[in-house]
Design a protein that fits this description.
The chain is an alpha+beta fold. The chain has two helices and five strands. The chain has a five-stranded antiparallel β-sheet, with no helix packed on it. The longest helix has 8 residues. The model has no long low-confidence stretch (mean pLDDT about 90).
């Protein structure tokens, strides 16, 4: 959603939307923001990535902080809501690489509780 998971200062690579840029455009450029996209495509070039997550208990809302197991702040929630189909709370946010890897256990601050 524009203004939450995607905005002017978030590249398509950070948002895990690199697949929408054709291979030719990734190589040749010719679009606004190409320099940023090109640098993010290099190994280690993207400092943060968008993630999806499940939350035990109340949903995490926009602006909630995301921590690693050592309680170091590594990101922020961009959106969250209860999922009636999954019967659990879900959300999206941005975290520092490498905490974006699948099955990484993270801690979210919800209503001042971890």
């Amino acid at each position: 959603m524009y203004g939450h998971e995607l905005e002017e200062d978030i590249s398509p690579i950070e948002a895990a939307l690199g697949w929408v840029i054709s291979k030719r455009r990734k190589e040749e450029g010719g679009f606004l923001g190409f320099d940023t996209v090109k640098s993010h495509l290099k190994k280690g070039g993207c400092p943060r990535k968008r993630i999806g997550f499940f939350v035990e208990g109340a949903p995490a809302r926009e602006g909630a902080e995301i921590f690693n197991k050592d309680l170091k702040k590594i990101g922020v929630v961009t959106s969250g809501a209860p999922s009636p189909i999954l019967k659990k709370s879900i959300g999206m946010g941005y975290v520092e690489v490498p905490f974006n890897k699948n099955e990484t256990e993270l801690i979210v601050s919800v209503r001042n509780k971890h």
